[in-house]
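Supplementary Methods. Inverse-folding protocol.

Structures were first reduced to a discrete structure-token string of length 332. This string, shown here, constituted the complete conditioning input.
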């Protein structure tokens, strides 16, 4: 029988060995995080240049690079509603040198309607939501409605007669309309376009009746009388349009559809790097000149922390898959 003291010493030896092994594994990651970044960081924007994700990546990247003393490059890898660029990031090394700014369409709705080569939740590390932009609901002035309740009533008297444009099959614009149909008990006919610009142009021309789109796109034509804005699809009224009601307070309680712009890396990004990036992008977002530009884009700046983004991803993926199933939308 081993004496108590001997057993204690043996246990101590085992624990010390285990601790040493754990430290040996952790030290390279700690050292890497402390040295990070040692080379340029690339932000993959899975959309063409000029859109909100691209503008945010370039504007914030410049500000963060000044503090980190390292270049932050922006690489546009567009195609397949963001799937091409996101797949590149999902398979990149988890070292913090390849990041992406994704959106609700590319990570929330597109995987619900398309077979993408990545898992929108498991294959990415959330760093934080940069900005939110609620969708807006607008109709052509020839549609005889002034509010959401009147639109619901009209749609119910003429099932399938109203044409609902979107900027692509499976986009957040499309699924916002399907969510409206589901919650309001209406049936409106979906008309997909290849992008927001042609869809909005046809809405202004009266070729289609209504559309959900980023609310900023509707402001100018609505002021010019070319469109009629009925509501915002956010959870609260837009600070830029305080007199515009939400869909939720206009007859469909709980309705919410927003596009978000978020910073992510590949799965298993070291926590220390996540913390650093979250902090620095949040700091950049709160700079006065950046805040002014973000507000001018009709975006609502967020706190850029991982937990809200992780929760949003889980919620959106489940929410839109349910809508796709209910609407009978064919998965490509």
């Amino acid at each position: 029988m081993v004496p108590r003291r001997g057993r204690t010493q043996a246990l101590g030896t085992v624990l010390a060995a285990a601790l040493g092994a754990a430290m040996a594994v952790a030290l390279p990651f700690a050292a890497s995080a402390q040295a990070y970044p040692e080379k340029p960081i690339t932000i993959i924007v899975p959309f063409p240049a000029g859109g909100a994700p691209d503008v945010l990546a370039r504007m914030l990247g410049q500000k963060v690079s000044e503090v980190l003393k390292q270049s932050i490059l922006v690489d546009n890898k567009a195609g397949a509603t963001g799937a091409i660029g996101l797949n590149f990031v999902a398979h990149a090394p988890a070292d913090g040198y390849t990041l992406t700014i994704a959106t609700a369409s590319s990570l929330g709705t597109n995987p619900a309607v398309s077979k993408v080569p990545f898992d929108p939740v498991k294959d990415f590390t959330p760093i934080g939501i940069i900005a939110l932009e609620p969708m807006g609901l607008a109709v052509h002035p020839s549609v005889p409605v002034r509010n959401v309740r009147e639109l619901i009533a009209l749609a119910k008297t003429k099932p399938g007669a109203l044409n609902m444009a979107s900027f692509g099959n499976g986009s957040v614009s499309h699924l916002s309309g399907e969510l409206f149909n589901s919650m309001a008990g209406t049936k409106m006919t979906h008309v997909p376009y290849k992008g927001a610009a042609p869809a909005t142009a046809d809405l202004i021309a009266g070729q289609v009746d209504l559309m959900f789109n980023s609310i900023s796109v509707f402001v100018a034509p609505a002021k010019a009388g070319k469109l009629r804005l009925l509501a915002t699809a956010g959870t609260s009224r837009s600070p830029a349009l305080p007199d515009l009601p939400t869909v939720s307070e206009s007859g469909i309680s709980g309705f919410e559809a927003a596009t978000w712009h978020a910073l992510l890396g590949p799965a298993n990004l070291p926590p220390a790097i996540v913390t650093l990036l979250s902090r620095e992008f949040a700091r950049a977002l709160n700079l006065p000149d950046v805040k002014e530009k973000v507000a001018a884009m009709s975006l609502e700046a967020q706190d850029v922390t991982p937990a809200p983004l992780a929760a949003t991803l889980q919620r959106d993926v489940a929410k839109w898959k349910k809508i796709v199933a209910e609407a009978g939308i064919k998965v490509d």
